[in-house]
Amino acid sequence: MSKRFDYNTLAHRLQDIFPPSSAPLLYGTAILVGFGTGLGAVFFIKLIAWVEIIAYEGLPGLIPGLGRGWFIFIPVIGGLMAGPIISFFAQEAKGHGVPEVMEAIALRGGRIRPRVVVAKVAASASCIGTGGSAGREGPIVQVGAALGSTVAQWLHFSEGRIRNLVACGAAAGIAATFNAPIAGVVFALEIILGELAIADLSSVVLSAITASTVARAFLGDAPAFKIPLYAVQHPSEILLYLLLGAVSAFVGVLFIRSLYFFEDVFDNWDWPDYLKPAVGGLLLGLMGYLYPQILGLGFVPEDELNLGIIPSQNIPHVFGAGFPVIELALLGKVSIGLLLTLIFLKVLATSLTLGSGNSGGVFAPGLFMGAMTGGSFGWVAHRLLPNLAAGPGPYATVGMAAVFAAAARAPLTAILIVFEMTDDYRILLPLMGAVIVSIVIAQHIQPESIYTLKLVRRGIRLFRGRDVDVMAAVTVAEVMDKAPLTVTADMPIKDLAALFHRTNSHGFPVVDEEGHLCGIVSLRDYRRVATPGEPIPDLTVRDIATHNPVTAFPDERLSDVLPRMAPRDLSRVPVVSREDPRRLVGVIRRHNIIRAYEIGLVRRGFALGHFPDSPPGTVTGQFPITPRSPYAHKALAELELPETFLVIHIQRRGRVIVPHGDTRLLPGDVVTVLSRDGDLQELETFWLQNADVLDDSENAPPPDSAPVVESPPSPESDRPETDSPEGGS
Known about the structure:
The protein has 25 helices and 12 strands. By secondary structure, it is α+β, with helices and mostly antiparallel strands. It folds into 4 domains: 7-219, Clc chloride channel (Orthogonal Bundle); 235-457, Clc chloride channel (Orthogonal Bundle); 475-588, Roll (CBS-domain), CATH 3.10.580; 610-707, 2-Layer Sandwich (Alpha-Beta Plaits).
């Protein structure tokens, strides 16, 4: 009798042969992901072209008399195909894709469902091929990321390795789509992971190189746009490019706000979700049908408007990704009237397409808007200052990067993508200046990018690829060191040196004779006065310590403490009593922050349904709070649970509450407790020994209750901050 083939067994055997920590397996899987993503990108690009041929050459032949009227109906057909795929097969395929990858990295350890690959390719090809105003890079990034995640999960990689392969897939997607491997690498590190980690760099580079090589083999190795080399005519022309950066910032912000405005309109509309993309397609089609006729009334030269009868040769400028129109703008072959009009029409077209729930990217539309913005600016500048401004072409090139940077807040990606797509190195200096000005202004007007705003609206705030809002579910008291080692102000620094060596700690709170906090001293403070090889100075801790340090309160949320630590690069913060700010009650260190993140992540996972079962290596138990329980009316911080136990959530009168340290347990609550070492018996024993668990079923809430996240109360008063840094390492 033949045995059934077991993929999990094969994965484990591969791990036995190539341990996960070994470089060959990591690099081999990165190359595999790059190869697969490259092939996927080629297939996706050709699929879009195939759909476009059917839509604009095949369908019009059925009813030739409809002529340009097909522009109204073809996007509707695309929406009718994409809508059901997204609604019934994979909701993650909705929209521009990159935020979903960022969310998977931040909240699910990079885990993405394999079905997303099929859904994203099918829905996006239907959308873009039928004229939807969206880019192909977002879908390919999501496809590559899903492929990387699937391979990593199949091989049972750790979360860190899963995140790495997701980044490899994202880099490969950009590299294959735009023939831009360097920009692909930077995009993965700057947007997807949110940080430059040397450990991630090698595999991400390998994946991008592989994908770009595969794409070039099928699609050619020429730059995306064939334009002449542009250069700065005069050093003072840089000022004009900086001004273009300021203008581009407003266009980028307009794009962000317009997209999310229409997304809100469609999300709040009581209409079946699977039909909304078709409605967006109808509005897009009407716009594509009408605007060339309106502009032909004398606003724009008629030969630019594609007013012919044959749809395949006269597709409206705002349909699809728009690369042919971008190239015309880069060559300076678009009139000023059409340039100005297309800025706003492309914003509206993309907002209708993606806001209605269709599938596609925002990268290409951002480049389109930038080229039109820069071209318009260059046209005006050349007319006003003909001896200084070169003309529309170079400004359109710089505008592409500036508008995309304003929308995505990815300066390095914006600079490198335009550099690689145009192969024009001489325009690099004005490119960098305009991008930086654009980002600074856009950040001031609209703090969130086109990617992160979608996550913020879901309650997810990212910092270096991590969701810092999960810290709002954890208080300082839950993770602080409640018995920190302290030093006195009068301690000689030679004794301090011995203490550093003995404890391997990098800093200590400083207390006076009465035990009151009077400062903090760090290893860096000591090294400033103690030169190696020379006698230790005759100083005390008081002489070198940082006085009036930044402090925290036990009832504060970690999300409020982090903004005080990060800008000053503090490694530890003393925790003081709110009633007596001089009384030291603990210390919060960086490793406590990591534990807090884990606690908050698990709590959020249970609240949002990401952990229908216990996470690996843990068990959970549910325990009722009866009127006679000693835990009734106590705050969680007062329970003194062992460190291996964690309160995940509380069921209360039909609600599920995400607990905080100051959350008080009430009779009738059902508390879910997680044991991180997986010992359920120990968990039950502890609870039974410490609580009166009489049967009180009439007070228990129904088990199936709608999740409600309880926000912790804000402190009634905030102690004034000091700007004196700790100076800790």
